[in-house]
Design a protein that fits this description.
The complex is a heterodimer of chains A (343) and B (290). Chain A is mainly α and 343 residues long. Chain A has 15 helices and two strands. Chain B starts with a helix and ends in a 12-residue tail after the last helix. The chains are: A mainly alpha (343), B mainly alpha (290). At the A-B interface, helix 6, helix 12 and helix 14 of A face helix 4, helix 9 and helix 11 of B.
Chain lengths: 343, 290
């Protein structure tokens, strides 16, 4: 009962959010929702115990693929015309996710020979190679300047009302729906047999293998699924911004994903979401409203990161879990106190 | 053609010596503390800014400025060890994240103090030394870096092989627990390793300050290169780091000269991926250190 009440309150908050936010904050909200999908897909990979540094490049793969498929300027004009000009944007987004998954599938052959720290560095190198290829090849990737004037999301017609998708509020709702569905799927995957196998691989990989789990195949599966949703997130980003370029996907945003996930914690499904929401609200809204200069905000971010690692090593979620445990204990205490009367 | 190849080799030797300084420091820190110091590029950057401040602004002699850079960055390293890596000793991922936090702070502080624009560091000398063959020459400035790298790495070798502190350091790198049982202070050893590692990076930064673009985010490309080198050489192997630095510098410089810079970066990364897949412990790594 309380759970449904909680979801209802959350839904009202999310739907009502754009009405209380200023224009620039609405833009931030769009990216926040997309980032939630990025961190949650990242968490699926970390379930198997592997930490990647190439996840944000996979996001970029989705963005590039979706942009190129929706506007095939790279094909000879006749061929493009014969195919009826690119895919419609929603389909291109799905295709972007699929391409990202495919790239992950191919990468998993060399990468999953590695484990732990070596995987971290290997995934970083693989991502960097992809990023440099975008930078190197002007055709079709547009070189260092990337792709410009990416096809926008088509307006949605609801009866007589047309919802233009360049508008931050409308795009926010679109992202909310796409990300909501994706999170639900990710949650179901985690709760399924497959998800339990991922957990088993993280904590007891030798034992899991000894009872017949193909560790390599399951790691690959986690990587491919995570990359699919990362690709979707990248496509959402590309069609909103209208541009993708190699610099958008270098190490810095990846470091931020890592920070969000670690500050939030990875033991629970909501941990990374908590991390990204808390830090984004703090960084973009509170500090910016206070008029703290850009450099100062980076400094505060860095200090917060250090403090979080030193004093809250299990993430923000551990604080929430502790509160919940205390709350539950008090409830039990009340029940116990009430029981003698009932008897 | 021969001249071009020889000249490129000379350039590669210069690149190798400064990369070796950075990578060896990173390996020292990893060897003793099992922490990947993501902020190593920022230590390099701090070294450069010491030269900017003391040499370009305050008109100190370059040698003094470089020594200040060495000591300042080394002490910064000690502080990092005490404040970040010691409390997080049992949490390797934590150390990595804390060093990322330090990286953000260092970049922010420097760009608040000096601005984000590239600093102008006047060259210390314009002299170019001809190496006997027509068309093959090395600027004296670069030769200084090579000499300093050879001297410092030589001194480090002697220190590690022939002093008690050096033995303690190598013992910790081999097996920290066993070393502690022999009465070696882990804190003391970690402090020394961190000082040396940071000071090497700082010196590299100070020496190359007149030769490269000095700006707050210059550490980024350095750390990427250093990672490639320590993976190729085998994490935790000092000899490996030096050999890999030379190998990488030659490959990168030759590809840059004969093709272009982006391709050179791609080739370098592919080299690293290949080593990772074929020989995950690196060329000189001896055992699993995941």
């Amino acid at each position: 009962m309380t759970r449904w009440l909680g979801f209802a309150i959350l839904a009202v908050l999310l739907i009502g959010a754009p009405f209380v936010l200023s224009f620039s904050q609405q833009e931030i909200a769009v990216f926040l929702v997309i980032n939630v999908l990025i961190v949650c897909s990242y968490r699926l990979l970390t379930l198997t115990g592997e930490w990647s540094l190439g996840h944000f490049v996979i996001v970029g793969v989705g963005g590039y693929a979706s942009a190129l498929l929706s506007k095939p300027t790279w094909l000879p004009p006749e061929t493009a015309a014969a195919l009826g000009g690119g895919l419609p944007v929603p389909l291109a987004m799905l295709a972007g996710g699929c391409v990202a998954a495919l790239v992950a599938f191919v990468l998993s052959f060399p990468l999953f020979r590695l484990k732990g720290f070596y995987f971290l560095i290997g995934s970083f190198a693989a991502g960097e190679v992809i990023r440099l290829l975008w930078k190197k090849f002007r055709d079709p990737f547009g070189g260092p300047k990337g792709l410009k004037s990416v096809e926008g999301f088509p307006d949605i017609q609801l009866g007589d009302i047309s919802l233009p998708m360049w508008d931050a509020t409308n795009y926010y709702y679109l992202c909310l729906i796409v990300v909501g569905v994706s999170l639900w799927i990710l949650y179901r995957i985690e709760r399924s047999r497959i998800g339990l196998t991922f957990h088993a691989l993280h904590w007891q990989d030798k034992l899991a293998e000894s009872v017949g789990v193909n560790a390599w195949r399951y790691r690959m599966l986690a990587f491919v699924i995570a990359s699919f949703f990362a690709g979707i997130a990248g496509a959402l980003m590309a069609h909103y911004l209208g541009t993708v370029n190699p610099n958008m996907f270098d190490v810095e945003p990846m470091v931020f994903v890592l920070i969000w996930v670690i500050v939030g914690g990875t033991a629970t499904f909501y941990g990374p979401i908590l991390g990204v929401v808390t830090l984004t609200v703090l960084n973009e809204i509170v500090l910016r409203e206070l008029g703290v200069a850009d450099q100062m905000r980076h400094l505060i971010y860095g200090l917060l990161l250090i403090l979080a690692v030193l004093f809250l090593p299990k993430g923000l979620e551990s604080g929430v879990e502790r509160l919940r445990a205390r709350f539950r204990r008090r409830e039990e205490g009340d029940n116990r106190a009430a029981q003698p009367d009932a008897a | 053609m021969l001249e071009l190849i020889l000249q490129t080799s000379v350039n590669a030797i210069y690149a190798a010596s400064f990369m070796a300084l950075v990578a060896v420091g990173l390996v020292m820190i990893f060897g003793v503390m099992r922490v990947i110091n993501f902020a190593h590029g920022e230590l390099y950057m701090l070294g450069s800014y010491c030269v900017v401040f003391f040499y370009a602004d305050q008109q100190f002699p370059i040698l003094v400025a470089t020594c200040i850079g060495l000591v300042f960055v080394g002490v910064t390293g000690i502080l990092m060890e005490r404040a970040l890596f010691r409390p997080l000793r049992d949490n390797p991922l934590g150390g990595l994240i804390a060093s990322i936090g330090f990286l953000l702070c260092a970049q922010a502080i420097i760009s608040m103090g000096f601005g984000v624009r590239a600093e102008h560091v006047p060259p210390t000398t314009q002299q170019v030394i001809n190496l006997g063959i027509e068309g093959v020459a090395i600027p004296l400035q670069r030769l200084y870096v090579v000499i300093a790298a050879v001297l410092l790495l030589g001194a480090l070798y002697v220190f590690l092989r022939h002093t008690r502190f050096g033995w303690a350091l190598r013992a910790c790198a081999q097996d920290a627990k066993a070393a502690a049982l022999q009465g070696i202070s882990l804190n003391q050893t970690a402090r020394i390793a961190m000082f040396i590692g940071a000071a090497l990076a700082g010196t590299a930064g100070a020496l190359t300050a007149p030769l490269v673009r000095v700006y707050p985010y210059m550490g980024h490309s350095v750390i990427v290169t250093a990672f490639i080198i320590i993976i190729v050489g085998g994490i935790g192997s000092l000899e490996g780091a030096i050999v890999a630095a030379i190998l990488y510098a030659f490959v990168h410089t030759f590809v840059t000269t004969f093709a272009d810079g982006v391709i050179a970066d791609i080739v370098g990364l592919l080299l690293m991926l290949m080593v990772l897949v074929v020989r995950p412990n690196g060329l000189f790594g001896t055992r699993e250190r995941a």
